[in-house]
Amino acid sequence: MRFLKRSILTLSCSLLLLSGFAQKKEPPRITRILFVFDASNSMRSMYDGKPRMDHAKALFNRFIDSLSKFKNYEFALRMYGSVTKYPPGDCNDSKLVVPFGKNNIALIKEQVAAAKPTGITPIEHSLTQSAGDFPDNNSVNTIILITDGIEECGGDPCAAKQKLYDKGIIFKPCIIGIGLTVEQAKSFDCVGNYFSYENTNVFSDVVGVVTSQKMGKTSVQVNLLDLGNKPTETNVNMTFYDEKTGQVVYNYVHSMNFKGNPDTVLLDDFRTYTLVAHTIPPVQKTGITVNPGTHNIIALDAPQGLLQVKRDKGFYNFNEKVRCVVRKSGNMNTLNVQNINDFEKYIVGEYDIEVLTLPRTHFKKVSIQQTLLKTLIVEDAGMVKIKTKELGDGCIMLEQKEGLKWVCNLEQKTDQTFYLQPGNYRVTYRSKSLKQTMFTVEKKFTVNQGESQTIDLFTQ
Asked: 20 to 30 Å CA-CA from 315: which of 96, 263, 375, 411?
């Protein structure tokens, strides 16, 4: 009874612990917002009866007061044009004034309140530097840029977008322009979401964009197509690379679901991918983008057939480890090394097969056809044991019409075994203790498939 009570108590504790683990949730993801504030000289210009700087500060305060009410939000402040007076200004005048952290909102507001229009407008440099302001790329990282001007340092704001992306800043910056012309505003189209200060909804629009940004994933189905353009191929490893960085993002084994359709996977919806299906040889597709909010289908031509190389009558000795080198027909690059008697899939096409028998067996322009098994027959080997009294040098040669073909060298052993293809052979041997060439011993022998024999080599 005591044992039963202890068991029940132990089980109850275990269930409570498991329940606690099951209810444990991952901590919510942090959202980090970097304000990039324009403190250049042009902010002195008047707009709607006040300096543009006053409008920028008022808008900034509305943003940070509103966004700081959300949980798990962190803020930082970068300013440009705030140090070196214009003219001439300094195109490197961009500084992280307040880094990301908790309880820094008062300091950020204080720095903005003290800002005075001073220098020049290095937008590309500022955005590029902003990429290093974020502690990591595991958070929802975004930028709010408040400016009244366009690039003045010969930079390309569009190039900054790629640099931000390479650093893991995946969401488009929100650019708020004060007093910009339509043409000036267009220069930001390639950078991010542009909002005009003149729009009475600018505040709510930007807050809506920022708060709705998530690290989204989108459903994708990969169709590995046969020659009839049907998605029948499966059980192939496939790798998704980030096309910009070359980084491996996802690595899956393709499968069919219970309905017999290619299974669904989830991909980040902000990347451009290169997909490699690790067939033999591999096939790939580049420039893949996925559309959020819809089920995406990626099609890849991957028709395959089977190849097997096996012995003629099955007199296969497992001590004989024979492999087959598979290459595309006419190409010396090795695609695969396949064990004899095994089955392997290959993309439909022509291949050259080199079977590592002694001597080598070659098959040229072997046609692999969709869903079919191509079987290549190799004659059974014969087993030849070669014995000597001493270690020595020599080789085995195959007799051909055009002469003798070297097959392999003898090993430094007194008792050795070779598996040779049927044919007429010669073996030469000279003991290491006998230095003169005339002491070479030569013996002829014939190998028949599935038979074994012993050859004794002694000095003459």
From this structure: 411
